Structure formats: C-alpha cells, structure tokens
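Thanks for the sequence, V.! I ran tRNA-specific 2-thiouridylase MnmA right away. Repeating your input here for the record:
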Amino acid sequence: MRVLAAMSGGVDSAVAAARAVAEGHDVTGVHLALSAKPGTLRTGSRGCCTIEDSHDARRAADVLGIPFYIWDLAERFTEDVVDDFVAEYSAGRTPNPCMRCNEKIKFAALLDKAIALGFDAVCTGHYARLSIVDGVPELRRSADADKDQSYVLATLTEEQLRHSMFPLGGSTKPAVREEAAARGLSVAEKPDSHDICFIPDGDTRGFLRSKIGERPGKLVDDATGAVLGEHAGVHGFTIGQRHGLGIDTPAPDGRPRYVLALEPVSGTVRVGSAERLEVTSITGSRATWPSGRPLAEPTECVVQVRAHGGLAPAVAEVAGDSLEIRLREPLRGVAPGQTAVLYSPSPSGDVVLGAATITATARTP
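Predicted structure:
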C-alpha cells in the first residue's frame, strides 16, 4: 500500500513510520505545520509542532530512507481547533482540543488530501488497536493502558478508520523507545509532549483571558443562592474545579466547594459540595460510530468522559438526534463540551462502540 506517515517529530510517530516501512509499504513522511508562528525550541516536554519538531521528523525520515514533506495546515488548525477551543470555553463548555485536532486535522484535512494524492492510508503513532472484523472497522484500546489513545480517536468515522493505520497499538511505550534506539532514531529519548500544544506554557486561563478578555460575573452558592464573590469570566472555570475559585469564606460545613455549573449568559458560576457534582445521566449530540452502525437498541456499555479517567458502567440508546446515557454509577466532573465515549462492557471492555459530544447532564434527586 501507499502509506502517508504523519510524523510529529516525536518517538511514537517515528517508530510507527518505521514499522510501516518494515511491513513493505511504500511510505512517505509528512510533518504538519500547525502554528503560524512556531517557536524555534520546545520548552521541555511542553508543546509540539515547533521548528525543532519538524527537524526531528525530517531526520527520522532520512534514517528510514523515505521521502519527507511539510504541509502547512496552520490556518485550518487555527480555525478548527484553536478558535473552536476559545468559542467553546466562552460558551461555558469544556472542549478537548486533541480530540478536535484528530477529527478535523489529522483524519479530515490530512486524510482527505492523502486520498486525493493517491495514498491508501494514513499512519500515525497513536496507541490504539484497529482491525477489520466481519468487514467493518473495530477500534480498541491499546495494549499499554497508560498510553491508550482510543478515547481521542473515537470520533473518527468508519470510512476514516478504513484508511488508518496505528502500528503501535500492541506495544508499550518502553518497548517503542527501545525500538527507536535500535533503529538509530535520535528521538528515542525525546520527552513526550503534554498539555495543550498551542498553550506550551500550560497557562490555559491566561491564554483564554488574552483571547476573550474579562466578562465579570458572580460566584453563587448553588444550594442557597448566596453570592460568594465575583470573577472575571466563566471561561476561567471548568466543571469540577476546586482550586482558584477566589472565595474568601469557607463553606458552613468546612468542606471544599467545587464548580457545579457555568452560565455564560448571566455570567454566573455556581459552586457547591462534591456530592452535588454527581450526575446519573448524560445527553450527547453529533454521535459517531466506528463501525458505521448506530446502536439499534438500549445497550450495556462503559462510558468514559475524559481522556484519562471518568469511567462508569451505563446503558446507552439513540433517541432521535441525541444519544442518551443512563449511568449505573454516578460520575463527578462531567461537563458539556466533553466527549462521552462508549466502550463494550466487561470482560473485554476495550472496543469503542461510539462517541458523542456532551450537551447536558442530570442527576437523580
């Protein structure tokens, strides 16, 4: 097959490309330039898509002996990922930019262009397992539970998955680093990137303030309606947040307060006890199905609402344009804007059934 290997400049994508070459595919490497003003150097393990990363990707391609190109997708990335991130926070929602990047950039813009150029598949360094079962794609958790990225790939469509390759799905990170060293790849010990790539200093609140400005509002006790303080904008908070609330007086029972709800129109941030964070049902929209087959009936599953954690057994069913999820166990810190990913129930519990963007939550009184 003709394979386009997305090479970020990190160890995972380099080894994924190497494995594609070793399997006999006709591989071409491509690095995505996603920043209009890339820095010349990373800051430790923070950030990605810098000039340094593009150089690392090119050196890896040279070692593998494959053609290498840089594609400028900075404008598309800004519109589909960065601007979306800001708009979602401004509306009181909590997006996952990595999920949006996979959906809109790596497996929409990149894959569409690859197919148009005659490539059969796009290869990435994601930790997830992908196979064809009874003629349809099956996306599963990776063998390395700590590195599993099936959650951020769950919004991909059946057609996108048919043209995708994830060579690292059966490997652990230490094994990947060892392989990189054995292959003579200089990125073998390069630190993993973390946090949000377009906020390399990790100051999300400061980034949003620079984009949105200040929109003062009230901090309100959800149980009593009492005004506890003021804030500079709902975009500075997320559901489940405990620290940095700016409340001087302790709760009457002395226990911590948490952000329970964000109301961007009125500028109200509602806070209360941890127990009031618990939700028992989730409503989602824009559902996607890796197999191309929506749920036909209420289905037992495991729902995950964050990239790392936030799991609970549940029953999910399609209701019109919505996905309704009834939790068997309450979850805390579930926020509109996050993605609910459905997995098959135990004992396997690792097959992605579908995903949807959370639009509302509720709790049993």
